[in-house]
């Protein structure tokens, strides 16, 4: 099983649709794997300007630390966005009533995006028949006004 995200850093304008492209390859296509998208808020910032894309060192190392998770999960908001098995998509409670779905094999369609959508999105693919390899990938989404 191999899971990858084509564009792991995305910047989107407020109220515009976004497609996070998660792709997977599995040695055992049947039964269909379960695809889960999970949202994780960015780590709380301490003493920074609040600009995730420009904060920190010129090489971006501080930005990467803030965005990618140098804080425990208990310090951030975590919620299930959606799951898909076969053709059935189930939205998490927070996303019901919004234009959110999983399209294709594992692509997350968010639209229109809101302020609270900035964060990390984890695409996890679970197959009961293919337990080898990497089963998740992470995308960072920053929503600008």
UniProtKB/TrEMBL annotation:
PROSITE patterns: IG_LIKE. Residues 16-139 form the Ig-like domain. SUPFAM superfamilies: Immunoglobulin. GO terms for cellular component: membrane. InterPro entries: Ig-like_dom, Ig-like_dom_sf, Ig-like_domain-LISCH7, Ig-like_fold, Ig_sub. This is LSR protein. It comes from Rhinopomastus cyanomelas (Common scimitarbill). The lineage of its organism: Eukaryota, Metazoa, Chordata, Craniata, Vertebrata.
């Amino acid at each position: 099983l191999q899971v990858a995200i084509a564009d792991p850093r995305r910047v989107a304008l407020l109220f515009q649709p976004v497609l996070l492209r998660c792709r997977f390859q599995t040695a055992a296509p049947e039964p269909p794997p379960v695809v889960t998208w999970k949202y994780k808020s960015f780590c709380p910032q301490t003493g920074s300007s609040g600009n995730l894309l420009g904060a920190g060192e010129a090489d971006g190392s501080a930005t990467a630390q803030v965005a990618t998770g140098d804080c425990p999960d208990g310090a951030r908001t975590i919620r299930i966005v959606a799951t898909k098995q076969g053709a059935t998509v189930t939205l998490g409670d927070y996303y019901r009533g919004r234009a959110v779905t999983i399209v294709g094999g594992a692509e997350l369609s968010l639209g229109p995006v809101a302020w609270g959508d900035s964060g990390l999105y984890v695409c996890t693919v679970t197959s009961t028949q293919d337990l080898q390899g990497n089963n998740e990938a992470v995308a960072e989404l920053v929503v600008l006004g």
